[in-house]
Amino acid sequence: MSARRRLAVLVDDERLARRELRTLLEEAHAEQLRVVGEADSVSDAARVVQATDADVVFLDIQLAGETGMDLLPLLGVDVDVVFVTAHDEYTLRAFEVNALDYLLKPVAPDRLGVTVNRLAAAQPPAPARAAVRYEDRLFLRLGQERAFVRVRDIVAIEADGDGSTLHLAQQRARKSSAKSLREWEQRLPDQHFVRIHRSTIVNLEYVERLEPWSHASQHVYLRGLPEPLTMSRRFGARLRERFG
After folding, report:
1. Domain 137-243, second-level architecture
2. Residue 216, by phi and psi: left (phi above 0), alpha (psi -120 to 50) or beta?
3. Distance, CA of 129 to CA of 42 (rounded, Å)
4. CB 140 within 8 A of CB 177
5. Which of 33, 118, 226, 237 is the most buried (most CB within 10 A)?
6. 0.85 exceeded by pTM
7. Under CATH, which number does the domain 6-120 receive?
8. Of 132, 163, 153, 240, which is closest to residue 196 (Cα–Cα)?
9. Per-residue pLDDT tens digits for 154-182
């Protein structure tokens, strides 16, 4: 039984770039993927994806007057995104850390073939195993949204069942993540993030003060959070040593 053909929308503000990518896809990969629409802006892309029921978007990051990243919250979580970008070391680092698929402009036919095969097999790149840096950005599924989050903007992380809740500095937001606290602890830079409780990790950059509480526990006050977090006795020595 042959694999289902994927339906793709091309999003780029340059008509020539869309035409070149469409030609490459139609000439070499028509059996695996069908281009069902094009768009040159975020609003048009969201409309076209919904109207065509596309499940793949080739997304240029830099659109005229806006960023392609603004499209991410408007897409269903079942839509695969292949980012298309001009060479930019900072941007590429974000993709590599997150094991996301991306294409460099101008798109090379051989590299495009690798991407299409991954899409056809519903097989993303192998997960990145390296620890992330404080300057990195993580591409996360946050509830029903997907977005890049700067590691330095993570104020604290609390366990929530099998997943976790992120406290983010930007707009003092709380977002749910499917990643467990153990996964976060393994990947975050330990010179900046420390566990203060079996269910809590904090970013040392946001710690303002510690106050005694009860049974040798302490309250940890973090910049941007309205209420303190509890530090258990077991983890107290580690934080005091790191916090000075």
Report:
1. Beta Barrel (2.40)
2. left
3. 32
4. yes
5. 33
6. no
7. 3.40.50.2300
8. 240
9. 999 999 999 999 999 987 789 999 999 99
